[in-house]
């Protein structure tokens, strides 16, 4: 299958929506959005853009999990460098917003990629109910009639856990610990339907197209991804928390490269007796989510593309 044909395939709705941090290009009738504002995926209604280099993201309240996460991250200088800058909370029209750094500020017509991290992108609490659900069985067979077991076909129902793990298996989340949610190439509309980009070759081709044989960008991205991995490995915050549904946000133009870990809405503090390494396989109750396993695989994928572009094999160019 050609890359262009592959990119045109509509993806299935997966367990965690892509981060709403990337905002859509300014519409002519929307005066509040600054020029160059884009959203690759997610829920634009949760974002209030400003013209001051700040993103306001709607939260549930003062005790929101994301607020808790950023407040703790700010206490670790090295960790704070790999996430958007945190500026506090604002209340507007009886709603609360967290104020974060606008990661697109200062970039000119950039290339952008949103990568959902983790081999599990749902909370254990979301799948704790063992009730058999006919509606989820119908959703499963609509995608793959051969996916249910004989017992599930007979019951014509499955649990939510079974359905969620089935959906994860449709992307590279299960096999590699990350999935490319969406990307935007310079001068082109965003490509949003990438959740079924699963094989190593599909991933490598997508990264190649995104990087456009720019060796300096490839080298800088690898440097920053490896630094981010080291910071996470050494961070007290990450040692004490389960990180679900976070994304790596990559942006570059002719002059600058940026890489951040974003979206901590499903970040949860671990019980005192629970320890995670972010690489081990998940079993219900151990709270492992595969964040660092995904980073290992993502770095390996970028290294493969870097090696390809250094060989005689031609790379895809924008």
CATH architecture of the domain at 111-123 and 173-312: 2-Layer Sandwich
Instruction: State the shape.
Output: globular
Helix coverage percent of residues? 25-40%
Question: How does the major sheet shape up?
Answer: 4 strands, antiparallel
Organism: Drosophila yakuba
GO biological process, one term: response to oxidative stress
Keywords: ATP-binding, Kinase, Nucleotide-binding, Transferase
GO cellular component, one term: cytoplasm
Sequence-ordered SSE layout with sheet pairings:
Blueprint: H1 3-7, E1 47-49, E2 54-59, H2 65-73, H3 77-80, E3 86-92, E4 95-101, E5 111-117, H4 134-143, H5 150-155, H6 160-169, H7 173-176, E6 178-184, H8 200-211, H9 215-234, H10 236-239, E7 241-242, E8 247-252, E9 257-262, E10 268-269, H11 291-310
Helix pairs in contact: 8-11, 9-11
EC number: 2.7.-.-
Enzyme class: transferase
Protein name: Kinase
Structure, briefly:
The protein is α+β, with helices and mostly antiparallel strands. About 35% of the residues lie in helices and about 15% in strands. The strands form three sheets. A four-stranded antiparallel sheet has the order 1-2-4-3, with helices on one face. A four-stranded antiparallel sheet has the order 6-5-8-9. A two-stranded antiparallel sheet has the order 7-10.
């Amino acid at each position: 299958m050609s890359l262009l044909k592959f990119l045109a395939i509509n993806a299935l709705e997966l367990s965690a929506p892509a981060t709403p941090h990337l905002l859509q290009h300014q519409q002519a009738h929307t005066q509040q959005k600054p020029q160059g504002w884009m959203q690759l995926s997610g829920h634009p209604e949760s974002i209030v853009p400003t013209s001051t280099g700040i993103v306001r993201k709607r939260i549930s309240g003062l005790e929101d999990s994301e607020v808790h996460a950023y407040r703790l991250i700010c206490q670790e200088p090295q960790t704070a460098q790999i996430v958007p800058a945190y500026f506090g909370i604002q209340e507007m029209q009886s709603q609360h917003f967290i104020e974060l750094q606008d990661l697109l500020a200062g970039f000119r017509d950039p290339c952008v990629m949103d990568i959902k991290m983790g081999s599990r992108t749902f909370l254990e609490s979301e799948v704790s109910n063992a009730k058999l659900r006919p509606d989820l069985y119908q959703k499963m067979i609509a995608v793959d009639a051969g996916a249910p077991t004989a017992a599930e076909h007979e019951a014509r129902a499955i649990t939510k856990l079974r359905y969620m793990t089935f959906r994860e298996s449709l992307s590279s989340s299960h096999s590699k610990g990350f999935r490319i949610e969406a990307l935007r190439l310079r001068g082109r509309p965003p490509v949003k339907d990438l959740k079924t980009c699963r094989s190593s070759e599909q991933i490598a081709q997508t990264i190649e197209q995104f990087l456009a044989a720019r060796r300096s960008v490839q080298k800088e991205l690898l440097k920053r991804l490896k630094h981010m991995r080291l910071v996470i490995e050494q961070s007290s915050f990450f040692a004490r928390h389960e990180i679900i549904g976070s994304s790596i946000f990559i942006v570059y133009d002719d002059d600058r490269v940026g890489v951040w870990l974003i979206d901590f809405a499903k970040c949860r503090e671990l019980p005192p007796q629970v320890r995670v390494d972010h690489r081990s396989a998940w079993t219900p109750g151990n709270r492992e989510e595969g964040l660092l396993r995904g980073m290992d695989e993502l770095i390996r994928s970028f290294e493969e593309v870097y090696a390809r572009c250094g060989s005689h094999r031609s790379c895809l160019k924008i």
